[in-house]
Amino acid sequence: MPRPAEGARIDERAVRQILDRYACPVPYHEVRARFLGSIATPVIGASPVVVVQNLWGGELPEFESLEAANELIGILVNGLWNGLTRHQKRTEPFRVIRLVVPATREGIAQLALTRRQEVDGFVEGLFAGQGEIDLPDKSNEALNVLGEIRAMMDGVHVLATDESKPAPSAELEKTLKYVQQLSRTIEQEMNAVLLDCTRARRAAMRETGPPGVTRH
């Protein structure tokens, strides 16, 4: 399979199909966010293939042939991973998965869970299996905001799935708009981390600078 140019457009349908075929336990929206975090990570030597393996708990699924294994790596690494690298440019910002949901308990719960999983995936990719990492100041601030939003999304999901709590239509509409607004903030902060880490990585290649803030 020929290697596409860095930043090539992603065939979302092919990615979803390959994840479904091999029963990937991580949903597509979280996979792409985890890949984005892995692209941003300052951890030296982070491997796309290892990130793919970790989707299945550390080992790739069983394949019927070498061709099948190459197909999965081609779609997830040459396709999805390389496609996401284009977001390292300010002119190509990353967007969370677009979901159109009704202002109902179920719709709000689905949206909040999806956003929480996207934040979780991004942070997991960023840390690359490490307990702590060095981040530039702006990235550290953005990660703090993402942590706060993650907690908010978890709280919204818990409330939306609690049938014992009243849920008048006006409140549901208000909550949906709130989650949609936070979705845009998630995008902004993820992009802030990605761009800041990209700048820091490129600067480090030119000269040695002081270490960043260590995250635990």
Give me the secondary-structure topology.
Blueprint: H1 12-21, H2 28-40, H3 48-55, H4 66-84, H5 105-127, E1 133-135, H6 137-160, H7 169-206, E2 213-215
Helix pairs in contact: 1-4, 2-5, 2-7, 5-6, 5-7, 6-7
What does this structure look like?
- This protein is an all-alpha fold.
- Helices cover about 60% and strands about 5% of the residues.
- The chain has helices spanning about 10-20, 30-40, 50-55, 65-85, 105-125, 135-160, 170-205, and strands at about 135, 215.
- It has a two-stranded antiparallel ribbon with strand order 1-2.
- Helix 2 runs parallel beside helix 5 and helix 2 runs parallel beside helix 7.
- The longest helix is centred in the C-terminal third of the chain and has 38 residues, at about 170-205.
- The chain is globular and about 55 Å long.
Q: What's the oligomerization state?
A: single chain
Order of helices and strands: HHHHHEHHE
Strand segment count: 2
Percent of residues in beta strands: under 5%
Q: Biggest β-sheet, characterized?
A: 2 strands, antiparallel
Q: What's the arrangement of strands in the largest beta sheet? A: 1-2
Question: Characteristics of this structure?
Answer:
mainly alpha, Four Helix Bundle (Hemerythrin (Met), subunit A), two-stranded antiparallel ribbon, 7 helices
